[in-house]
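ok trying this again, last paste got cut off
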Amino acid sequence: MRAIVIEAHGAADALRVRELPDPVPAPGEVLVRNRAIGVNFVDLQHRAGAPYPVDLPLVPGTEAAGVVVAVGEGVDAAMVGASVAHFGHLAGVYAELTAVPERFVVPLPPGVDPETAAAVALAGTTAHVLTRVAERVAPGDAVLVHAAAGSTGGAIVQLAVAAGARVIAVASRPGRADAARALGAHAAIVLDDRLPERVRELTAGRGADLVYDANGGPTFDASLASVARGGTLVLYGQTGGPVAPFDPARLSGITGGDAAGSLALHWVAASHYLDTGAERRAALEAVLADVAAGRLGPRVSHRFALEQAPDAHRVLERREADAKVLLVV
């Protein structure tokens, strides 16, 4: 089978096309012929070897959708031929075939195509966890979302709007701000040094009840200064680099600085809430119900062939993707 392999950490050209033996599903595994593979920023971090170290060689990727072609011992043979999504693992996804432990595999409802499933498997379930499980967006909440035109940020915007929140989107440039507005955001801001001030202008001086930030270090201080008294800053990634060590007393609002006070800081790793097969299935079923109901759009901005994986990574690195990037097999 064809696969993309990282043999040494580096830039996008570290992704090499290789011919590998077809995998054989071990006991408890499902062999999936991938049709659509999601490309995520964490894949770039695995390729670079930081901040999340991985063992090499590695066939990267964490989500895909396709058809079951074989099962290992202990797996129901009736799964063969089923359309499925699989996500949240490192079992070798940038490939024509992936042997996946069954708990990472979710059968797809009739009519859900592989591209739709791959577009929402990680981004949609992450947004689901962030807005409904780890934190709960309530009607009337002021919610600030960074990278609001991206695949995960855009999903957060849509689910927060569906929950009745007033959503303020933050984007890196005007075109992306427009894209966030099109997703339902009530206001959209192009990121600059005045972010906290502009958030307060839009919230009658209060700030945001929830701030969702996956950038990490570059926007942490501005995000913290944008939170309303008693609100929560939710970190769920560090695509821009890690947050520098800081004094937790800053959250109090009584030791100086520009924080409103009595703030909460919550780091959310969606994988901790999608640890079991039942949790993963329930989350994806909820997300696909959102898609069917029109609450969440399965947005795709770029499609590449498997061997074009380096180009897909470059699109993400240059922040050119306004939605999901897929490898189509």
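PB: full thing came through this time. The mean pLDDT is 96.
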